[in-house]
Amino acid sequence: MDVPSSVNAQLRQLPSVDRLVDAAGLNTKLARWCLLEAARSALQGARANVLEGASAELDLDSLSRRTRRLAEELARPSPRQVVNATGVVLHTNLGRAPLATGAARAVADSAAGYSDLELDLESGGRGSRQQHVNHLLRILSGAEASLVVNNNAAALLLAVDTLAAGREVVLSRGEMVEIGGSFRIPEIMESSRAELREVGTTNRTHLRDYSAAIAERTGILLKVHRSNFRLEGFTAEVSLAELATLGGEHGIPLVEDRGSGTFVDLRTAGVPEREAWSGLREGADLVLFSGDKLLGGPQAGIVLGRGDLIGRMQSNPLARALRVDKMTLSALHWTLTALLDGRESEIPVVAMLLASRETLEARAERLAKAIQRVVPYPVSVERGSSPVGGGALPDVELPGVVVCVKPRGSAAGIARGLRAADPPVLARVQRDVILLDPRTLSDDDVALVASAFAPLADV
Ligand SMILES: *Cc1c(COP(=O)(O)O)cnc(C)c1O
Q1: CB of 99 shorter than 6 A to ligand 1
Q2: pLDDT at 186
């Protein structure tokens, strides 16, 4: 393709990378690698604009400003901290459970130094990394044994691979779930050496469906919590207790993938969840759940139940690939100890779920006043509710209050502006109204949210 000479002239006018780096880096502390990467990218963008005939600012000043902006982005810590004003307590895209301050400190300490992670200090011999939390999980749950791995998906993979390799996993068609970010039960089966044996129909599965499926090749019966959708209408499912009886008759282990497991009674807050280990009491041989959903700890997969089965899981070579790291163990140790101490209110997820109406109202009023000081459009406090979280409890909305901001222009535009703030603020948009939920905000966040609104007064 022939390039017109005017385009060539424009391209020749562009500064060299070195010249742009020097100009953009003047009087800044930006690292050279950030400036170099940013300058290359700015020049590439400018060149593309010229070739496409788009209007472009090609002077050194404009390019240098653009380079500096890109370099600043590269220099920022990542992932970035954001303010969660959505009210979604367990938001997968926002990193699910925020850790307690104490747990975060425990992580920092163990991360920065050496520890007895896999050392028995008394004998000087090798220890197990599981020993740091085993006893806490046993005291809290009464379970015979426990195992902690990298996340719940890993726990399920390990359970299925260990207990049903070369055999079948019996699962209701009503529980063939996909849980965000490519966690799909059928795919977990494909990654393991087990085969899926689907029973029942999407809406109804009966005990006789399970009975009919049991054969020589049956490895486990699996029950999966429907964490992110609701089954309504003409439905039937088999209880854990009934499955336990059936499994018991045939000597087949029953595994419950609980997904989200709480260690405190949240029913007063309207969260209809029994304790994580309740499935063991109903007869499950193993219960699996995440450390960073309702438990409010670090990302982890926790397995509770029969010692012999957990022992086999630990000896599976896959366990090494799925193992939990020292930072996670430190955070989990802190969180479980807080629960045993009765300091659950120090765990952010628990505190947010149990927040009283008075606390929420007071925070909402402060927030509404602070925002109203910087924007001319109507700001009010209304009744509302907070979704607990798509991947944890799909149908649970906690009653509370929300701050409603009704801009003159587009609410989506405001939401975009809030995301561009530093720190970015995430809000809910309902038609032409911005909703800010005090449940997931700290008292310190109030000022940050208000200052994010300040440049948006004219939107
Ligand atoms: C969330 C969830 C998982 C995945 O847990 P991760 O800790 O994200 O790996 C698995 N099963 C169920 C039922 C879940 O709700």
Answers
A1: no
A2: 84
| Segment 198-250, tens digit of pLDDT | 999 888 899 999 999 999 999 999 999 886 677 778 888 899 999 999 999 99
Q: Are 254 and 220 in contact (CB under 8 A)?
A: yes
Consecutive H or E run containing 393: strand 393-405
Residue nearest to atom 13 of ligand 1 (CA): 259
Do the beta carbons of residue 218 and residue 252 sit within 8 Å?
yes
Q: How many residues does the chain have?
A: 459
Q: Which of 285, 294, 286, 300 is nearest to 261 (CA)?
A: 294
pLDDT (tens digit, 9 = 90+) per residue, 66-117?
Answer: 999 999 999 999 999 999 999 999 998 999 999 999 999 999 999 999 999 9
pLDDT tens-digit map of 309-321: 999 999 999 999 9
Is residue 22 scored above 80 in pLDDT?
yes
Q: What pLDDT is recorded for position 228?
A: 65
**CA-92 nearest atom, ligand 1:** 8
Mutate to test the pocket of ligand 1, among 290, 324, 328 (most ligand atoms within 8 A of CB): 290
Question: CB within 8 A of 112, min separation 6: which ones?
Answer: none
441 vs 446: CA distance, rounded Å = 7
Whether the CB of 301 sits within 6 Å of ligand 1? yes
Pocket test for ligand 1, best of 175, 178, 183 (most atoms within 8 A of CB): 183
CA 153 / ligand 1 centre spacing (Å): 6
> Could you give phi then psi for residue 204, rounded to 5 degrees?
-135, 125
247 is written with which tokens? 């499994």
Q: Residue 76 burial by CB count (10 A; 0-12/13-18/19+): exposed, middle or buried?
A: exposed
User: Is the separation of the CB atoms in 43 and 21 below 8 Å?
Assistant: no
Question: Would the CB of 260 count as within 6 Å of ligand 1?
Answer: yes
Ligand 1 neighbour 389 (Cβ under 6 A): no
- What average pLDDT score do residues 331-336 get? 98
Instruction: List the residue whose alpha carbon is closest to atom 6 of ligand 1.
Output: 152
Contact in structure between 299 and 391 (CB atoms under 8 Å):
no
CA gap 258, 289 in Å, rounded? 5
Pocket lining: 290 vs ligand 1, CB cutoff 6 Å: yes
Say yes or no: CB of residue 314 within 6 Å of ligand 1.
no
- Does position 187 have pLDDT exceeding 90, yes or no? no
Q: Two tokens at 316?
A: 């599976």
* CA distances to 24, 39, 45, 59, 127 from 42, in Å: 11, 5, 5, 12, 53
Single-letter code of the amino acid located at 47: R
